[in-house]
Amino acid sequence: MARLNIAPTKSNQIALKRDLRMATQGFSLLEQKREILVMELMRMLDRVKQVQQEIKTRSDKAYATLRQALSYNGYHHLRNIASGIHYERTFKDGTRVSAGVRYPSLKVTQSEFHSQFGFVGTDSLVDQTMEDFLKLTEAAARLAELETGVWLLARELKKTQRRVNALEHIFIPNYKDTLHFIGESLEGKELDSFFTMKMVKKRLENSDSSEDDKGKGGEEL
Amino acid sequence: MAYHIIGDADTVLGFRFAGVTGDVVEDVEQARTAFAKAIESHEPGVLLITRPVEDMLEAEVTAHRLEATPPYLAVIPDIWGNGQKRRSLQEMISEAVGIKIVESDK
Is the CB of A38 less than 8 angstroms away from the CB of B101? Predict the structure, then answer.
């Protein structure tokens, strides 16, 4: 395993211990965040599925009505009518925050269905088409909002995953290894110095006793 | 632009009935220019594209999705019944982002 390039000293050991504690804390926090993101993502995906189903039924209905309207009124006539249709829409673009991710919340208010063409020359199918497509666009806005959220969440999840992996497989093992190394070498140094002290003491004692001997000898002489 | 649709003539006509502006595209080149023009503004709004257009512009659409900036995309089936999803959102995400989303992710 890789070891950090740090001198094995007591102060480094203390600093590293603090770092390791931080990393472990951060790891568990990120792990939690990741779990929350996954849960949120699953929830959103379920909702996307629902809205997609809704869009499918609504579009099937709308297209069927349009086809009917086309066959009764003719393409060019319908195009003329359609070119005069205008709906007022207000579009609010807010942001929502969940699990630390900001994602958009759209609020589209569209004006209610109302007749925008003369009664002469059009039939109820045209009205029906208009209504069906209004419903379809409303659902499409919800889908757009949800899908954007899903992509943002997925991006955030990826980022979190990468951080979790980095902490789990690189930083924390590195710190642990280095701490182990520092601990060992500090112990070794301690033994070393203990041994040296013993040696010195012994030598001092020896020289003391020999001096004593000399001194005694001198007195005797 | 609150709504805008890119698709074939008949689908676009349908959405005209809901007052949605649209670009009629017939081939990849037209679709590409229309799409580029639509996303360039970054105005808040919903950009509707039909499934065939999505298939034509796979790279561009995925790039725009990853950015997740307005206009927000919604893919809808077109009038010809080309609405079958070929890939689920999960698959697209695991392809583009590189993560697999499964229930017990551990």
Answer: yes
Domain range for A163: 10-176
Query: What fold, for B3-96?
Result: Rossmann fold (3.40.50)
Q: How far apart are CA B71 and CA A144, in angstroms?
A: 9
pLDDT digits (tens, 9 = 90+) for A123-172: 788 888 888 888 888 888 888 888 888 888 888 888 888 999 999 998 89
Contact at CB, A79 and B99, closer than 8 angstroms: no
Among candidate residues B13, B96, B102, B97, the one with its CA nearest the CA of residue A65:
B13
Query: Of B17, B24, B49, B72, which to mutate for an interface test with A (greatest number of A Cβ within 10 Å)?
Result: B17
Residue B47, H or E segment? strand B46-50
Residue B48 Cα, gap to closest chain A Cα (Å): 8
Residues 83-112, chain A: which have Cβ within 8 Å of B? Answer: 83, 85-87, 89-91, 93, 103-104, 106, 108, 110
Alpha-carbon gap: A170 to the closest alpha carbon of chain B (Å): 19
> What is the C-alpha to C-alpha distance for residues A154 and B90, in angstroms, rounded to an integer?
10
Query: How far from A34 is each of A20, A41, A60, A91, A122, CA to CA, in Å?
Result: 21, 10, 38, 32, 56
The first and second tokens of residue A89, run together, are 């829409």
Dump pLDDT digits (tens) for B36-74: 888 887 777 888 888 888 888 888 888 888 887 778 888
Question: Which residues of chain A form beta strands (DSSP E)?
Answer: 89-98, 101-110
Q: What single-letter amino acid sits at A4? A: L
Residue A15 belongs to a domain with what CATH number? 1.10.287.3240
